[in-house]
Please model this.
Amino acid sequence: MELKDKLLSSFLAFEENVDMNSDIHEVRSQAIKDFEEMGFPTKKQEAWKYTSLSKVLKHDYTVFPKKEDTIEYRDVEKYFIDDIDTYKIVFIDGIYSSHLSATTHEKIDACLMSSALNSSKYKPIIDNYFNTVAPKESLTSLNTAFSREGAFINIPKNTMADKPIQVINFSTGNESALMVQPRNLVVVGENSHVQIIERHQSLTDHPVLTNSVTEIYADKRAIVDYYKIQNDNHSASLIDNTFIEQHRESICSVHTFSFGGNLTRNNLNFYQKGERIDSTLKGITVIGGKQHVDHNTLVHHIEPNCESHQDYKGVFAEASTGVFNGKIIVNKEAQKTNAFQSNNNILLDDKATINSKPQLEIFADDVKCSHGCTIGQLDDDALFYLRSRGIPLKEARALLMYAFANNVLESVKIPELKARITKIIAQKLGVNVGYSL
Model:
């Protein structure tokens, strides 16, 4: 049975076992109909021209884990940013893990999506925000149909989250192949601020497919810092769909660090619905082997006097493949827009590939918009200079690649996270670096 047919046949059984209010039931029913009509995306679609899901979809995935599993903290401690105090929302094979989590309802809500969907307390938030910015698209609709669990983060008006929030999804390998579909909702009120770190981590060599959807709402003058760490096993594939709606004078940034996994597809979409909004999208990709990472971004400038900054750096070794498909849309009414987009890549080996397609669609006449793309190799003169100073070849190459990625790293606002990312990059490059950038 093909995966699409298996998912369609599993939907009725899923609905029977999930206690949801009638409104959510209607949303789910429409979503599964949309998915049935559209199916999985293929390379015939322009947005998926360079990324094929055919090999990922061939496995016989278990849609619902047969049993819950427990993990000892000591076995997964290295995957947490544990040198700072954080709230933690942890899931194991898609099921909430209470003993690894540290949630809260004091001043802010950092808790479970399932609780919010079934609670009368949060019904106004769910009615106003759940599934209202995510578009009608095949994988997003599939997630909506099966969404049951994930992180629910609600930051009330005039509130600063007292510490960052970590959202971590572990896969144990209890199933021969597993598909999970976490659904996250983040609502940040007027004049509020939150920092969130998200990670998907497989603990097995069994195939794992994650189809994740995150909706983020930033009210007036809200500040959201979101960090995605993608350093999974080569048997794991991730389709990450993130949709952000911003309102007047809000500031939102998303940093995506892609280092591992079989196939990774990041769909990141910003919608600016107000004036004097600032949106930042930054990413670093360092991959090798036959890994595949695809960044598909959109910033839609709808109203005037707003800014957006996109800066993606990629280092590709061996037979790895990178894709950058970035789009900026500036509406006719969005005068005085300042939009910047840059994608710079280094190919370390002849078989490495990068497909880059920066795009601008501008309908306003008083704007400052720019985009650019570079693809090349390490500078031989700079490499010779470092080697002439007694630095070994491997370390010299690593230094140049660190310098290449530094302007992305320097905007990370959590020092401990910045140090962790620096360490991961050093490990990917096979060197020991006794400092952080």
User: Anything to note?
Assistant: The radius of gyration is 21 Å. The longest helix spans residues 22-38.
